[in-house]
Amino acid sequence: MKNHQFDVVVVGAGGAGLMAALHASKTANTAVLSKLYPTRSHTGTAQGGVGAALGNIEEDHPEWHTYDTVKGSDYLGDQDAIEFMCQEAIDAVIELEHMGLPFSRTEDGLIAQRPFGGHVNNETGKPVRRACYAADRTGHMILQTLYQQCIKNHVNFYDEYHVVDLLVVDGVTAGIVVIELATGEFHTFHAKSVIFATGGHGRIWEITSNAYAYTGDGVAITLRRGIPAEDMEFFQFHPTGIYKLGILITEGVRGEGGVLLNDKGERFMDEYAPTVKDLASRDVISRAMFLEMQAGRGINGKRYLYLDVRPETVNKYAVLDGLKRPDGSPYVVTAEEILGKLPDIVDFCRTYLGVDPVAQPMPVQPTAHYAMGGIPTNMYGEVVIDEQNTILPGLYASGEVACVSVHGANRLGTNSLLDLLVFGKYSGIKAAEYANQADFTPLPANPTEFSRAQFAALRENSGQENAVQIADEMKSVMNDYVGVFRTEEGMQQALDKVRELKERFKQVKVQDTGSIFNTDLLNTWELGNLIELAEVTAVSALARKESRGAHAREDYPNRNDAEWMKHTLAWLQDGEVTLRYKPVVLTKFEPKERVY
Amino acid sequence: MTMQIKLKVFRYNPEKDKKAHHDTYTLEAEPTDRVLDLLEFVKGQIDGTLSFRRSCAHGVCGSDAMRINGLNRLACKVLVRDLHSRKIVIEPILGLRVIKDLIVDMEPFFDNYRAIMPYLVNDEPAPKREREQSNAQRERFDDTTKCILCAACTTSCPSYWANEAYLGPAAIVNAHRFIFDSRDRAGAERLKILNESWGVYRCHTIFNCTIACPREIEVTQAIGEVKKALATGKID
C-alpha cells in the first residue's frame, strides 16, 4: 500500500473535476485522479452547447435563463442555486473562451448561439438562441480546453487510478482509497478536502447514451459511507438516441430546425407543445414519443420515430412556423450548412446506421442520458448529509455526480455543461479555502480494510453467476419499468428483480485472478455500484406518488405540490433503503402549471 | 443476418505469459456489430481476462485504438460489415510498450503531446467579453481541433516506429491547432520546438496517419502546413 498526501484531491477528470482542479490548485496542493485518462471522460461526448444568456444574437437575460431552468425542473430545482448558476453562466463561458475554447462564431466574430429545448424569450414564449456552441462537439472542446489549461498550470494527475472508498473519521473527511490500474495496488490519498466529480450512472438502463465508465462510483461509495443520495428517482431520458444503440443525437439538431415525425409522416410535437413544439423540454418530448409509439405510430409500428433534418423538411416547417434569421429574413438552410453545424452527428449516422442525415431521416428513440439526482450539495459544492443541510467538513461534489439541485426533476439541455463549469469552479475554490485553514485528519488504523474486504468477496465467492447476465437483467427491467413512464406495479417488479440480482451478485464470477489491469475485477465492482443505485432509484421512485419532470407515473399523472414539493434523501444502511425528505428552496417563482 | 466470425486476438499477460500469443474465438455476429461489441462479448461470455480500454463506445473518447486487420482503428467505430471479412485480427497499436493484451503504455504518447505547449498562450490583458475571431480565422484551425488523442495516427507512423524520440503526428496536430489560432501568441515558440531534430522533419509524408485518423483529420496536410510555416517564417 502506498500513501500520498495532498491538501485537495479531486476524483474524476471530466469537466467538473478539471475545473475544480484548476481553481483549487491556484492556492492549494492539489491532485486529480481518474480511472480514465482525462480526455476520455464523458464530458467529451456532450454535443449541442453550454447555456449562457450572452445575448450575442438576440435579446436575452440571466433572469430568463433562471426562470426557464426553474420551469424546466418542474419546480423541484432550488431557486437560489439556479439563479446563482445562471448569473455565473456568462462569466463561465467567457472564462472558457479566454482559455482558448474554439467556439463557433457569429458573423461579427462573437461566440455563436443556437436555440435549445426549453430556452425561451420570456416575453414572447418563442425559442431564444442561448446555447453557446462549438459545432456539435462542445463537450469535446470543453474537455480538451480544460485539460490543456491543467497542463499549462502543472496540475498533478494520477491517470488510471480508480477510486474505491472514501475515508471519513469522526465526521470529518480524511481521504480516499484507490486502486492503481497498472499494478492493482491499493493506495491511500490522505487529504484535507476531497472533491467527487465522478459523473453519472446511466449504465443502469439498457438504452443509454452513457459511456461504459458511467457506473455511479461516487454515489455508490458515499452511500456506503452513510451519506444520502438525493432525488435519485429523477433520471433524464433524452428524446433522441440512435435506435437500439442509444448514441446521443443532439437537441441542437432540432435547434437547427430538425423535427420529429411519426410513421404517418406527421410532426406530432405541435399536439403536445403548441408553442415551442420540437423545442420543448426533454421530459415532455420523450413522453410524447412514448405515447406516439404506444398508439402504434412508431415507424413501421416499431419502437422508434424519425428525426428529420433534411433541408427540404427543415425549410418546409420553418415556413409554417414563420422562423426568421436574426436579420429578419426567412430561415432557410442548405445541406452544406447542416454538415457544417452538425458534422459529428452526420458522421455517427453514416458510421453506425449507414444513413446520411441530409438525405434521409434518422431513426431515434429516448435514451437514458443524465442523472438529476446524486450526492447532495449546497451551491458551493459542499456535501450536505441530512434534512438540515449539515455540511460534512472537507467533502465536496460537483458535476453530474452532485445534486445541488439546479436541475430538479428535469434538466434543460445545455445546463449540464454549465453546471459542471460553475459548480466545478466553486467546489474547487471552497475545497482549497477549507484545506488552507484545516489540519489533516489522521487516517484510520487500517484505511484499506473496508475496500479490501469488498474485493476479496468478489474474488473468493462461488462464481456461479455471470456478471453480464446480471447486468442485462438489471438494464432490461429498469428500462421497461423505471423509464419514461412508470407504474406502481412495474416499479415493484423492477425492484424485486434488482433485489434478486443483488443477492445473485454475491456469487458473481471474476475470471481474472491477476493484479495488472484487472478490468474484469473492476468492471464487476462497478456493476455492484450500478445495482445498488438501481435499487435506490426504484425505491425513491416508488415512494413518490406524483408525476413531476422525468418521473412520470401513469397511476399518479399529476404533479402534487401540496405533498411532494420536496427533495428525496435516500440512505442505504445494512442493505436497506430509508427515505427522508427536505424542502425545496423557493425564492422568486411560485409553482404553476408547466406548458410549452 | 447473423454471421460466424473468427476473432483472432493478441494476448499477453505479463503475470503469466513468457511471450505473446494469439487466441482465436469463434462467435456469432451481426454485420452492424461494432468490433468493440465482439471484444465485449468475448470478455463477458468467454474469457474475462481479455483486457482492453474502452469508454464512450462511439468514437469520441479515444480509448480503444487498436490494429484491426492490420490498420489502426477505433474498435467502437468499425462495424463487422466494414471489414468485408469473416476473419478479424486484433492487435495492440505499435510503437508503445504492451502492458497487457490490447493495453499499451500511453505515457510516452502524452509526454510528446505535453512537449508542444498544447494550450493557448496569450498574456495580453483579456477583454471583458470574448476575444473576437472571424469565421475565417476560426475555420483556419478547425480540422485539428477534432483530435481526441487516441494515438491511432502516431502509432501508424513508420518514422515513429523507427525512432520514438520523434514527437509524432498527434503532437504536431495539436501544435497546429494553436499555431494557427489567431488568439494565440506562442506560435514561434512551438515552431522552434518542432524545428528540432525530433520534430516535424521526421515526417516523410507517408500518409499512414491521415488514413488512420478516426476523426478524418487531414493529418499529413496539417504537418505540411507546419513545415511550410517553418520554411517561410510566416504563419498564415
What's the short story on this structure?
The complex is a heterodimer of chains A (596) and B (236). Chain A has 596 residues and is of the alpha/beta class.
Could you give me the name of the CATH homologous superfamily of the domain at 449-582 in chain A?
Fumarate reductase/succinate dehydrogenase flavoprotein-like, C-terminal domain
What's the total number of strands of chain B?
A: 7
How would a textbook summarize the main sheet of chain A? Answer: 8 strands, mixed
Assign the CATH superfamily of the largest domain in chain B.
Answer: Alpha-helical ferredoxin
**What is the CATH architecture annotation of the largest domain in chain B?**
Orthogonal Bundle
| CATH topology (level 3) name of the largest domain in chain B | Fumarate Reductase Iron-sulfur Protein, Chain B, domain 2
**How much strand content do the residues of chain A show?**
15-25%
| Rg over CA atoms of chain A | 23 Å
Continuous helix count of chain A: 17
Residue stretches of chain B low in confidence (pLDDT < 50, at least 5 long) are none
Biggest sheet, spatial arrangement of strands of chain B: 2-1-5-3-4
**SSE order of chain B, one letter for each helix or strand:** EEHEEHEEEHHHHHHH
**Proportion of residues in helical segments of chain A:** 25-40%
Distance between the termini of chain B: 52 Å
**Structural class determined from secondary elements of chain B:** alpha+beta
- Kindly state the mean pLDDT of chain A as a whole number? 97
**CATH C-level label of the largest domain in chain B:** Mainly Alpha
Shape of chain A: globular
SSE diagram, text form:
The complex is a heterodimer of chains A (596) and B (236).
Chain A: E1 2-11, H1 15-24, E2 30-34, E3 50-51, H2 62-72, H3 79-99, E4 113-120, E5 127-132, H4 138-152, E6 156-159, E7 161-169, E8 172-180, E9 186-196, H5 217-224, E10 229-230, E11 235-242, H6 252-255, E12 259-261, H7 269-272, H8 282-294, E13 305-308, H9 311-321, H10 335-341, H11 343-353, E14 362-371, E15 375-376, E16 382-384, E17 391-397, E18 402-403, H12 415-435, H13 449-460, H14 467-481, E19 485-486, H15 488-505, H16 519-543, E20 552-553, H17 561-564, E21 566-573, E22 576-583
Helix pairs in contact in A: 1-4, 1-12, 2-3, 3-12, 5-16, 14-15, 14-16, 15-16
Chain B: E1 3-11, E2 21-29, H1 35-46, E3 65-68, E4 71-74, H2 80-83, E5 87-91, E6 98-100, E7 103-104, H3 107-115, H4 135-140, H5 158-162, H6 169-179, H7 187-194, H8 208-212, H9 219-232
